[in-house]
Specification:
CATH architecture of the largest domain in chain B: 3-Layer(aba) Sandwich
Radius of gyration of chain C: 30 Å
Strand content of chain B: 5-15%
Low-confidence stretches of chain C: none
Largest sheet of chain C: none
CATH topology of the largest domain in chain B: Rossmann fold
Largest sheet of chain B: 6 strands, parallel
Distance between the termini of chain C: 12 Å
CATH class of the largest domain in chain B: Alpha Beta
Radius of gyration of chain B: 22 Å
Mean pLDDT of chain B: 88
Structural class of chain C: mainly alpha
Number of domains of chain B: 2
Shape of chain C: extended
Distance between the termini of chain B: 13 Å
Number of strands of chain C: 0
Low-confidence stretches of chain B: none
Strand order of the largest sheet of chain B: 3-2-1-4-5-6
Number of domains of chain C: 2
Mean pLDDT of chain C: 85
Chains: A alpha/beta, B alpha/beta, C mainly alpha
Order of helices and strands of chain B: HHHEHEHEHEHEHEHH
Helix content of chain B: 40-55%
Oligomer: heterotrimer
Shape of chain B: elongated
Order of helices and strands of chain C: HHHHHHH
């Protein structure tokens, strides 16, 4: 009995796939068609599926061409080589050894480009709310309303650190991390650098800025120069004190550590985006007895900074730095707006928890409305 | 007494470094360790490789560099040895250009040790820029990305590559990850082409990869030194990672003990004050 | 003009990229990719600026005959040798990193790899000293942090659950001693009761706690990592990205302009 069964299995062609459906890939720039099918009932024993494609040229279907070969268990595929406005149809061949069987043709499909990404509607709505709130508060400050910002110890300590280092007769060291100029933490770090360089000019203390990224290096040089001008001592600016060090992570860490040990800076500022080198820098800074102020948005590195440095700007505190230091009304307004968005988000999260929890027990589909709305691709 | 408490609340960092140094070197030098049970995600990875038919092709991707070498290199060697012992074919490539020589060095070393021939039992393809593009194009035709191997030899003239065209010819992909390339492998090779994947990673990256294992998008996960040690236990050849795991356990205990001692000193001092 | 032009460029490109997020249709669909390509090209050129700065910095040191001048000589000569060798093997083998070019491979294996690995391995030492200093029971928050650090550190290594009962035992005995001492020095009766009570509870809790940790430590460590740790991390992330949005809007609108001269 088993023998007969095996013979039958091997001599018969595998069962074909069914329900081959082709449709335009939604929310894209066109040129793509998604093909889906129901697996062959013999999926577990077949070798592979071959997808064939035909296009209509001047009213005639072309010869079928092989689109691709996929392994068993695969039931969908995206054809990325389509021309918008041209009609295509597909079929799938199931192969097992020499035997094969073809599915019927799929429906006729056409690819097209869309003008609006529907799955991102929630982002757009949130963006409009955020910008609206920011503009509202900017408007409000224009009318002369004072805005409150809570104390941030790490930022208050900046001037104190520069002062203490000056008393000790030691230079300042500012490290901008491994971020590029396209990273927002680096730009936040630059605004803190500007304040520190202004103070260093006022106190007539040297400021050393070794850089990892060449673009950041150029920006840092300009920032320090500007800071010295604001501090009223452009003559004290030394071009050689802001320099490019290395484009290798641990080479950079080694270089900065070397500078710390040789120059013994009185204050070390670690402000920017950091990776595994964060603690190597912070512990060396601690070992030379420097007062250290760190700040980063790299969540995995924050614990190291909190453990090893005196003050840490946690995540968004860093972004608030320039507004906090300059007390510029417009910048403060954006922070106020950010707070309101945060309240809004907390409300949405709580609502989401309630909806999803009820949905879990009652299985009412519309309760997933928030989850579906905020699921973005 | 007071002096004693003050001293243990402010241990010189050099003493701490010395303790750490001793705690690391002794287990590594003596290679002594203790028994422990391998993690389940490592065991499934091992069993999957054991279940592959002889002669299957395994794609190995080197996505780390020298900084993560202590964590991933011992495992790479152990896994290559396991693959060759099971008579599987190894096709190696990588997405971290500065780490590729590490992969090549290990591959040549183990192949020589096991008497395997280049071009028949293993091949080294090298690096092409563009992570997502490379992964997606292998799904169509590997020759679209790598027309030649690292020495400039056409793939068709290498016996091992003659029947390899895309993921349907590759039974397993093993990615060695120190960054985010693992996400690309899962999102493109697994999600689009249903490729079976085992990921091995540094301890820092491992938590990010667990969801893929839980969602069954990868067939195994070997994370950090612990995973490597587990794997060494499974292939019954305890080596560097196993000794390293003992070192790691000792270090953790030393740190916790130091923290405790520091706190005793700190609390006593606070009372004195 | 010196400021207006860059500000206008920032505004237009920032605005275009935001719009492009919502329009898959060309020419917007591939805009981000194209901008990234441009950025890569431009930043490639700035590497020249970096090299220029590096060489000049060390050249100055050599010229002034500073104490560290020998290191600067090493740096510049290494730079020149590696560059020259790269060009040589580029011409000879068609690839600066050609494996046939033994020098670069030698340089990579015996200089680059050990140096990188050495710097990274410093972390083991630094984590120990930083942990020793930072984890002090300064208050309630610090104590909670201390306890969870202990749980995770011991729970994530094999055999950690066998060491944990001793640690918890010592910790609880200490807690009892501190409570008794604290209780003795108090005047108010209710304070004395609280502290002596705490001492008694600590002593009673030793065996149950040790027993619990012996069998549940890895699971407890996973819980700490997956529930409180992950929850706090997500909260931080939301805050950070909101901050980034506000910062980005400040940059696009030209309110934040420290990066400009």
């Amino acid at each position: 009995m088993i023998k007969i069964f095996l013979i039958l299995q091997f001599s018969l062609p595998p069962l074909p796939v069914s329900e081959v459906v082709a449709k335009d890939v939604p929310n894209d720039a066109g040129g793509k068609i998604q093909i889906e099918w129901e697996l062959s009932p013999d999926d577990s024993i077949i070798d592979f599926y071959t997808v064939f494609k035909q296009k209509k040229i001047e009213g005639q279907w072309s010869e079928p061409e092989t689109l691709t070969v996929v392994r068993s268990g695969t039931n969908s595929l995206t054809d990325t080589d389509c021309k918008d406005g041209v009609e295509y149809r597909y079929f799938v061949r199931v192969s097992k050894g020499e035997e094969f069987s073809d599915s019927p043709f799929s429906n006729i499909a056409m690819s097209s480009a869309q003008w609006f990404h529907k799955k991102r509607a929630s982002v757009l709505i949130l963006l409009i709310i955020i910008v609206g709130l920011l503009l509202y508060f900017i408007q409000k400050t224009r009318k002369g309303e004072e805005l409150f910002i809570r104390k941030i110890a790490g930022l208050d300590a900046l001037d104190e650190a520069v002062g203490r280092s000056t008393e000790l007769g030691r230079p300042l060291l500012f490290v901008l991390g491994l971020g590029t100029i396209a990273d927002i933490p680096t730009i936040a770090g630059l605004s803190i650098l500007k304040r520190v360089s202004k103070k260093s000019a006022e106190y007539e203390t040297d400021l050393i800025v070794p850089c990892f990224d060449p673009v950041v290096f150029v920006a840092a040089q300009e920032t320090v120069k500007e800071g010295y001008i604001e501090g009223g001592r452009p003559d004290l600016f030394k071009e050689g004190n802001v320099f490019f060090l290395s484009y290798d992570q641990f080479g950079y860490a080694a270089g900065v550590d070397g500078i710390m040990v040789r120059e013994k800076p009185g204050a070390v500022f670690l402000q920017g985006y950091f990776y595994a080198e964060s603690l190597i820098l912070a512990e060396t800074g601690n070992s030379i007895g420097a007062i250290q102020i760190s700040g980063t948005t790299a969540v995995t590195q924050l614990p190291f900074f909190i453990a090893a440095t005196d003050y840490t700007l946690i995540g968004e505190e860093m972004y608030a730095a320039s507004a906090y230091l300059t007390k510029d009304a417009l910048s403060l307004a954006t922070i106020k707006g950010e707070d309101w968005v945060k309240i809004l988000l907390i409300a949405v999260i709580i609502l989401g928890i309630i909806f999803e929890s009820i949905a879990f027990f009652t299985k009412i589909p519309w309760l997933h409305v928030l989850k579906n709305f905020f699921t973005v691709v | 007494m007071r002096e004693f408490f003050e001293r243990i609340s402010k241990i010189d960092r050099r003493i701490i470094y010395l303790l750490v140094f001793i705690g690391v070197t002794i287990p590594l030098l003596t290679r002594k360790g203790f028994e422990f049970k391998p993690l389940q995600e490592v065991e499934t990875a091992y069993n999957f490789i054991e279940s592959l038919p002889e002669g299957s092709n395994v794609l190995v991707s080197i996505d780390y560099d020298a900084a993560s070498m202590p964590e991933l290199q011992p495992l790479l060697e152990v896994m290559l040895r396991h693959l060759f012992r099971r008579n599987l074919k190894v096709i190696m490539l990588g997405h971290w250009p500065l780490g590729l020589p590490l992969g090549q060095i290990a591959l040549e070393k183990i192949a020589k040790e096991m008497g395997r021939k280049y071009g028949e039992d293993y091949v080294f393809l090298g690096y092409r820029p563009g992570i997502a593009a490379v992964i997606l194009n292998i799904g169509k035709e590997i020759r679209g990305v790598f027309d030649v191997d690292y020495r400039g030899i056409y793939l068709d003239s290498l016996p091992i590559m003659r029947n390899v065209h895309n993921y349907s010819d590759i039974a397993l992909l093993i990615g060695f990850e120190a960054g985010s390339v693992g996400d690309f492998w899962v999102q493109f090779a697994q999600a689009r082409f249903n490729q079976k994947i085992i990921l091995t990673s540094t301890a820092v990256v491992t938590p990010d990869l667990y969801p893929y294992y839980q969602a069954k998008q990868i067939v195994g996960l070997i994370g950090g030194l612990r995973g490597a040690a587990d794997y060494e236990i499974l292939v019954k050849k305890k080596g560097f990672a196993y000794a390293g795991m003992t070192a790691q356990t000792i270090i953790h205990i030393i740190i916790v003990a130091l923290i405790l001692i520091g706190n005793i000193g700190y609390l006593a001092m606070r009372r004195v004050r | 003009m010196k400021k207006e032009v860059p500000l206008a460029i920032t505004f237009i490109s920032g605005f275009l990229l935001i719009v492009a997020l919502f329009i898959p249709h060309e020419p917007f669909g591939s805009l981000q990719e194209r901008f990234n390509d441009w950025y890569i090209i431009v930043s490639g050129f700035t590497l020249i600026l970096g090299v220029d700065s590096l060489i000049l910095y060390h050249w100055r040191k050599i010229k002034r005959k500073e104490k560290e001048a020998p290191y600067s000589i090493i740096l510049i000569s290494t730079f020149v040798i590696v560059l020259a060798w790269g060009i040589y093997s580029g011409v000879k083998y068609g690839n600066p990193f050609a494996p046939a070019s033994s020098f670069l491979r030698y340089f990579y294996t015996y200089m680059f790899v050990p140096l990188q690995a050495t710097m990274f391995s410093l972390l083991a030492f630094f984590i120990a000293s930083a942990a020793y200093r930072a984890f002090r029971a300064r208050g309630l928050n610090a104590t909670l942090l201390l306890i969870s650090a202990g749980i995770v550190m011991l729970g994530r290594v094999p055999k950690g659950e066998e060491a944990a009962p001793y640690f918890i035992g010592i910790t609880l005995i200490l807690l009892a001693i501190v409570s008794v001492l604290e209780g003795v020095s108090r005047v108010e009766v209710y304070e004395k009761i609280i502290f002596f009570g705490l001492a008694v509870v600590s002593i009673i809790a030793i065996f149950p706690a040790a027993w619990f940790l012996k069998f549940n430590l890895p699971r407890l460590a996973d819980w700490v990592m997956n529930v409180p740790q992950l929850g706090a991390k997500r909260g931080l992330f939301i805050g950070i990205w909101l901050g980034a949005i506000a910062m980005a809007i400040r940059i696009i609108l030209g309110i934040e302009r420290t990066y400009l001269k």
